Amino acid sequence: MAIRAYILLTITMLGWGGNAIAGKLAAGHISPALLTSGRWLIALAILLPFALPQMRREWPTIRRHFLLLLVLGVVGFALFNNFYYLALNYTSAINGAIEQASMPLLVFIANFLLFGQRVSAGQMVGFFISLIGVTLVATHGNLAGILRLDVGYGDALLILSIAFYGAYTVSLRWMPKLHWLSAMTALSVGAILGGMPFTAWEAYSGSLVLPDLQGWLVLAYAAVFPSIVSQACFIRGVELIGANRGGLFINLVPIFGTFFAVTLLGEELFAYHIIALVLVLGGIALAEHKPSQTQTG
């Protein structure tokens, strides 16, 4: 059972790690907002036939919480992906993968500030270690740059996108209990609605880029693997070994993302990337080294 869960969770992280590569490959071949809206539109078309029977059974719950589900889809899927893909037009996929690993830190801060979740000394130390790692990447190896607010535009957008997903993750505590097919379908509707204004703005401002062949391939990958396959594998993997153990596999995302960026995109791996990766993952491992409740999405 454990081996099966490990395989499923590794597949999950491969898909999510590849999302940074997809965003980078999309630049100039499909615009970020169109990629986001198209991704979730295709995902919805795939999910809906399988989800309808389950949604009929759970419709009273869905109807009561429909507004919440839409907001979660807007924040966690539309806003996160729009700013994430936009950021990758201005920064490297390696930066995108490593900075995405800071997600647990934002969740940690929000739970502490909003809900008074207790904080241990190990968590505080782990937080600051990881924060140094993220800052190292955002300032391109020049920590003194943070004093001058010398953070790359793309990296600033990445941090904003990650903040949106952190808010989504924290808000999952109010998520009604639904079958994953029902939940993903409802969230996909929110993602499409939330992405429409961004796509409309692209069209209005003349920045809309219709997909060419590479754009369509990126769109298909983003719709199928990070959106559906990874979610399904993650949910099943967590069911098999539990949320605490399953959540630790998220630390593989920056490792896979960095590996793909170097091997597939030919991006240059600098010493500060390696140092930052060690700091971020080490800090998260230290912060999570205690029995805790892990939220997944």
Structure description:
With 297 residues, the protein is mainly α. The protein has one domain (2-287). It is 77% helix and 0% strand. Helix 1 runs antiparallel to helix 9 (213-241), helix 1 (2-26) crosses helix 11 (252-264) and helix 4 runs parallel beside helix 7. The longest helix is centred in the N-terminal third of the chain and has 33 residues, at 32-64.
Based on helices, strands and strand pairing, what is the structural class? mainly alpha
Residue ranges: pLDDT <50 for 5 or more in a row?
Answer: 291-297
Helix content percent band: over 70%
Subunit arrangement of the protein: single chain
Tell me about the biggest sheet? none
| Termini Cα gap | 22 Å
Mean pLDDT: 84
Please report the total strand number as a whole number: 0
Series of secondary-structure elements, N-terminal to C-terminal: HHHHHHHHHHHH
Quickly describe the structure:
The protein has helices at residues 2-26, 32-64, 66-87, 93-100, 103-115, 121-138, 153-171, 180-205, 213-241, 243-247, 252-264, 271-287. It is an all-alpha fold and 297 residues long.
What characteristics describe this protein?
297 residues; mainly alpha; disordered C terminus; transmembrane helix; transmembrane; EmrE-like; AA-Vitamin_Transporters
